[in-house]
């Protein structure tokens, strides 16, 4: 029986901050419910989070504060700087659509040593889901922002959403990202979550072929850190070595996501801003009323409501799924938005991004 | 309900069956990881730099 991912840790490895709900884009697969509204986080919220985070950060080698959104740059540089000011001893990360990046933002990234991730799905055709509020392509603006990063020599990672994994796609997108100049690439197969109700259940064989072919193109030119393929290889190697059970974290990271208003959602950033008639609000508290450390400690010690049901779901995955050691259990948001509850097991996301990923890498290895 | 032990053993066996192709692929991957300064694994550090939200895999909650 797999031994990792038992219970919720009392200290996370990072927090996710929502400096604004607003996004200047309106991507067709986006899950964010309030992206049309500019609800900004107050400095009081950031200060309350920092009170706990600075203590956590002092206890560990590295602790990340991830500024997510909405589009974090839509908060404006002055406001973002004010929100970052209370933090000390942390690494700041920004995941951005890149459309607002210019030299002034590059100055900002340099000044705060921010690690930058951009969201782009490949060439203009592949990135067609990333559109502005008028439905126009955002591609040229994205590339202009990335050009600014490259001009200034700022390293960046890329996240690519794939809506239709299929044979042939890997050979199209990998060279694009190779030329783009990102140091790392993560592939997110589109997920049914939040306000994106599109079910994504692509053909399993086609999905396996996509991952298999991605393994092949990465092997031929491993210049980019390719998140999914490299993790699958690592897992396969550990399986051969008999050490696969050592890979998963011992406990589940609580992943605190702090909304613009100070509300804290644990375990699943995608649940922020949502409520359910049965479960109520998914928030575990608000940093303006309770310390973040106390909110996390309470959830870890006495998980209740949807989180208790989620932990039951993790145990169901552990006891029924042979891929648990690779995956760690279906994510809370995928369970909820696909099944309507948290104690189900296999999701489309499991199939698309875990099961068929590992099987695709094994398919490639067997073909050699 | 399928027997998990059988399914897990079957998956492990499939990995082992892939070993002839997997072992040289892993050797190349490890050389890539070493060249990046990640020791022998797609390091905690490398992926945390890029994807701190890849929490199932790359973080070490305490």
Would you mind describing this structure in some detail?
The complex is a heterodimer of chains A (368) and B (62). Chain A is built from twelve helices and twelve strands. Chain A has 368 residues and is α/β, with parallel strands linked by helices. Chain A has one domain: Aldolase class I (TIM Barrel). In chain A, helix 7 packs across helix 12. The model of chain A has no long low-confidence stretch (mean pLDDT 95). Chain B has one domain. In chain B, 69% of the residues lie in helices and 0% in strands. The termini of chain B are far apart. Chains A and B meet through strand 3, helix 7 and helix 12 of A and helix 1, helix 2, helix 3 and helix 4 of B.
Give structural attributes:
heterodimer, A: 368 residues, alpha/beta, TIM Barrel, ten-stranded mixed β-sheet, two-stranded antiparallel sheet, 12 helices, 12 strands, B: 62 residues, mainly alpha, 4 helices, 0% strand, flat, disordered C terminus
* Secondary structure: helix percent of chain B: 55-70%
From the N-terminal CA to the C-terminal CA of chain A, the straight-line distance is: 31 Å
Order of helices and strands of chain A: EHEHEHEHEHEHEHEEEEEHHHHH
Number of extended strands of chain B: 0
CATH architecture of chain A: Alpha-Beta Barrel
Strand fraction band of chain B? under 5%
Number of domains of chain B: 1
